[in-house]
Amino acid sequence: MTPAEASVGKQTDAAHEGGEFNQLVNHHYLTEEQFGIVSETLQRNLATSINLYLKFKKYHWDIRGRFFRDLHLAYDEFIDEIFPSIDEQAERLVALGGSPKNAPEDLARYSVVKVPTETVRDARTQVADLVSDLSRVGKGYRDDSGTVDDAEDHATADMYNGYAGTIDKIRWMLQAMMDDEQLN
User: Fold this and answer.
1) Is residue 109 part of a domain?
2) Which parts of the sequence belong to the Ferritin/DPS domain (predicted)?
3) What is the mean pLDDT of each run of 10 residues along the chain (184 residues)?
4) Which of 73, 94, 104, 154 is packed most tightly, with the most Cβ within 10 A?
5) Containing domain of residue 22, as a range?
6) How far apart are CA 60 and CA 62, in angstroms?
7) How far is CA 63 from CA 120, 122, 123, in A?
8) Structure confidence at residue 28 (pLDDT)
9) Among 63, 53, 54, CA closest to 125
């Protein structure tokens, strides 16, 4: 059973928590079960994208040494490629009748990327950590594309395929930097 399938019936978006201002809207072409699957992936990927953004920013601020300028600028370029997905995923969840959870504890709960609390200045350590995260995030988008496609939400599957391509490109560029023996 996939994580998305396991979450069916659980409240992964704020609209399903009830309350005066959390009125559900029509899920359009999705059943409640399909929406549960799709909303779980959207919530997880939204939290992951926010944490990935924050991690790149943290490393952007922390980097020191010989590769400072190259990585400082590269991290901002990668952030610019990732950032639009945050709003797109949140708005997709809302368009389908959900409501994003984005409090810090929700980000920690749903994200597959953890933002370090310690200062990491070493270029190789930063890049290796990001490559590992991006490998996991890219695989997650590909897996979730199939999951939401099976749940009859082809539009969200298309979004995920595009994000996977972006993540794969960033991962490739960072992995290429790892080939430099002087990256220390």
Assistant:
1) yes
2) 41-180
3) 47 60 64 94 98 98 94 97 97 92 94 95 95 98 98 97 98 91 70
4) 94
5) 3-179
6) 6
7) 7, 7, 7
8) 72
9) 63
**Domain presence at residue 100:** yes
DSSP the chain: --HHHHTTTS--SGGGG--TT------TT--HHHHHHHHHHHHHHHHHHHHHHHHHHHHHHH--STTHHHHHHHHHHHHHHHHHHHHHHHHHHHHTT-----SHHHHHHH-SS---SS----HHHHHHHHHHHHHHHHHHHHHHHHHHHHTT-HHHHHHHHHHHHHHHHHHHHHHHHHT-TT--
Residue 85 makes CB contacts below 8 A (sequence gap 6+) with 45, 49, 159, 163, 166
184 assigned to some structural domain: no
pLDDT score of 10: 56
Contact 138, 113 (CB under 8 A): no
The CATH number for 85's domain is: 1.20.1260.10
Cβ proximity of 55 and 115 under 8 Å:
yes
Instruction: Please tell me the total number of residues recorded for the chain in this structure.
Output: 184
Q: For 134, what's the count of Cα atoms within 13 Å in the CB-facing half-sphere?
A: 25
In a domain, residue 141? The reply is yes
User: Could you tell me which residues come within 8 angstroms of residue 40 by beta carbon, excluding any fewer than 6 positions away?
Assistant: 3, 4, 7, 8, 10, 12
Give the integer Cα–Cα distance in Å for 9 and 7: 6
